[in-house]
Design goal:
The complex is a heterodimer. By secondary structure, chain A is of the alpha/beta class. Chain A folds into two domains: 247 residues, HUPs (Rossmann fold, 3-Layer(aba) Sandwich); 32 residues, no CATH class. Chain A is built from 13 helices and ten strands. In chain A, strands 5-4-3-6-8-7 form a six-stranded mixed β-sheet, sandwiched between helices. In chain A, a hairpin with an 8-residue loop joins β7 and β8. In chain A, α2 packs across α9 and α7 crosses α11. The radius of gyration of chain A is 25 Å and the shape is globular. By secondary structure, chain B is mainly beta. Chain B has a single domain, classed as Ubiquitin-like (UB roll), CATH 3.10.20. In chain B, the strands form two sheets. A five-stranded mixed β-sheet of chain B has the order 2-1-7-4-5, with no helix packed on it. In chain B, strands 3-6 form a two-stranded antiparallel ribbon. The chains are: A alpha/beta, B mainly beta. At the A-B interface, α2, α6, α9 and α10 of A face β4 and β5 of B.
Chain lengths: 311, 66
């Protein structure tokens, strides 16, 4: 299999784009997808200070790497969740990347340790508050990340949510008709009120497989183990189902999520629904009195053209 | 050939030569959820794998809240 662009030997096939790429062209493809996301969703500019949430996993380290390589001012923020050996290994990955790649490019790493402030690790806290571990973890990470971004005066905070994350979340929200959540599922959430930093997801155009491949090809070491707390999480089931569909029908995940974003955008551009718009514009037809949005209704126009008097 | 798998970490031995996509199918693994790495290099699904190769099949899916 050869690279679609330069015809040398390919290292990865991307069926949803009907393409295969060599290492160099794939790196260019990944950077281009992020640059497109940043531009089309108005995420940030070259002068903005960005705080990237890094976990030691492939997505967040790839995001930090890509933003730095694209010339953005991006620092990292790591939350130590206190999940024994898993947290230690993930921190090692983050520290290694921060020292070897980020620091030489002028970027800093900030850390927050859950046990220091919240008084226990994620597992213990979840037991105390009788909530699922993933949900407790999400609440604490979102809170601390936002606080760090606001207090340290960053313009925007960026997370490594990818196409698979967003498609799986959308599937979950649709299956349970959680319409309130659907409204908040865009790749850019503005700083709506005082105290809330702007949040962006620059990897929403790239799949998990593409991001893992980017790390392997760029020699970025990341934690491959699954978080021990996430085993059995519903998200994994949704991702598995979507990947089975994707294998049979390439492009399913992007059509699903990007299609949703497209519909959201159109909804925003046209604040009135079709029926609301019609209600506002309707009045009696000058010829027959039936409701129409024009002076003369379509039926009367048609009948006039057919040289028949309208009833 | 020697194949390293994760979640849980284990090694399996499979007779080559074999095309990458056939290996994944034999192990009941979905292409979209895995990368196949031979000696630190990514390989595409049409690549032929041989008995002497050291292969890692790496899952790419992560769960929980990213």
């Amino acid at each position: 299999m050869n690279c679609t662009k330069c015809k040398t030997k390919a290292v990865i096939k991307i069926p949803r784009h009907h393409a295969a790429f060599c290492k160099g062209c794939f790196t260019h493809f990944v950077h281009d997808q992020v640059a497109r996301a940043v531009k089309s969703e108005k995420m940030f500019g070259k002068d903005d200070r960005i705080l990237v949430a890094v976990s030691g996993g492939k997505d967040s380290l790839a995001l930090w790497d890509i933003l730095l390589k694209l010339g953005y001012k991006a620092d990292g923020f790591y939350v130590n969740l206190g999940i024994g050996g898993y947290s230690e290994r993930s921190y090692t990955m983050v520290r290694r990347f921060a020292d070897s790649v980020a620091a030489p490019l002028g970027a800093a790493l900030h850390t927050h340790t859950v046990e220091h402030e919240e008084g226990g690790g994620i597992k213990e806290l979840a037991q105390v508050v009788h909530r699922p571990t993933c949900s407790t973890c999400g609440t604490i990470k979102r809170y601390q990340f936002n606080r760090a971004a606001v207090e340290r005066e960053y313009d925007v905070m960026a997370t490594g949510h990818n196409l698979d994350d967003e498609a799986a979340r959308l599937l979950g929200n649709v299956l349970h008709w959680q319409e309130d959540y659907l409204e908040k599922q865009g790749p850019t959430l503005p700083a709506s009120i005082e105290g809330f930093a702007k949040k962006v997801k620059p990897l929403y155009r790239l799949s998990e497989r593409e991001l893992a491949a980017y790390c392997v090809l760029s020699k970025i070491e990341y934690i491959v183990d699954e978080c021990p707390m996430a085993q059995g999480a519903r998200t994994l089931l949704y991702k598995e189902v979507l990947n089975r569909l994707e294998t049979e029908s390439p492009g399913t995940k992007q059509y699903f999520y990007w299609g949703f974003l497209d519909k959201q955008r159109r909804k925003q551009d046209a604040p009135l629904t079709m029926s609301e718009k019609d209600q506002a514009l309707l009045h009696p037809c000058a010829t027959c009195g039936q409701p129409t949005t024009a002076e003369v209704c379509s039926y009367c126009k048609l009948m006039a053209r057919a040289k028949l008097p309208a009833r | 050939m020697h194949i390293q798998l994760s979640h849980p970490a284990r090694t399996v031995e499979i007779k080559g030569p074999k095309r990458t996509k056939d290996l994944l199918r034999e192990l009941n693994l979905v292409v979209e959820a895995h990368l196949v790495i031979r000696d630190d290099e990514l390989v595409t699904e049409d690549e032929m794998l041989y008995d002497k190769d050291r292969i890692e099949i790496r899952p790419v899916i992560s769960g929980g809240t990213p």
